[in-house]
Each structure stands twice: as C-alpha cells, then as structure tokens.
Specification:
With 142 residues, the chain is of the alpha+beta class. It has helices at 3-15, 56-96; strands spanning 21-25, 34-38, 50-53, 107-110, 113-116. The chain has a domain at 3-96.
Length: 142
Amino acid sequence: MYEKLLETLHRMDDGARPGPWVVRNDNDGSWLPFWVISHELDEEGEWFAELHVGDYGTAKFIAMTRQIIPQVIEALEDMQTELEQGRKERDAAIKDIPHKCWSCANGFYTDNGFDCDLTHYKSGCKDCLSWQWRGVKGDEDV
C-alpha cells in the first residue's frame, strides 16, 4: 500500500543534498530575494546548493521538506510494520473464533437462540462448515 510512496520518498531523499537547509534573504533588490541553501560549503567555501525563490513561504516549505522527508519515511515504515503485525494478529484471532452461529456473518438471533439458513446445524450446537467471520461490529450493532 505504501510501497510506491515510500519508494518515491526514498528517491527524493537519496537524491537531495543533506540537510538541514536554511532560508536566507540577502535583500539585494532582486525580484527573487529568498534563497534556500544547504548547510554545506564546497571546496571554495561557496554554498554547495542554492535555489532562488520568490516568496518566503515557498522557500521555508522547501527548506523544511528536507528535514521532514526522512521523518515521514521512518514513520511510514513503522506504520507499515505495525499494520503487517496487526493483520497477522487479526488473522490468527479470527481462526481462534468458535465457528458457531453467534459469531458467523450468516447467523441470526431467534427466540430459540442463534440460527443459520446455510447449515443443517441449528442453534450453534456444532461447528459450522459454512462459517464466515462477521467482521467488526459497528456502533449501530452495539
């Protein structure tokens, strides 16, 4: 689910100069007064990367993105790991649910207890071969 997004973010992160990046305004009268620059200097002592941007908001966004993308990558990878673990735990829990009418998507309550039209076992006395997990109950089912 997140694979393409993570792949794109990794490419962006790997292809950019290291951060942090900063916004500088030399106010030299040019029509593009804001510079987004990396913190690194090249061999001659000049800024290694710089980008001229026309407004402070855009410049700040670009500079902050350099710091935020690695954090987003880490958070998405952590969420993906937790999601995969949660799915494994859910699937194991579903397998442990007794296959009775009261826990089946096809089961329904009657005056005589739970029943199901899909099986000849009535009132949940035996395990049902047609059992299907009913899913998570919503607020309206409580």
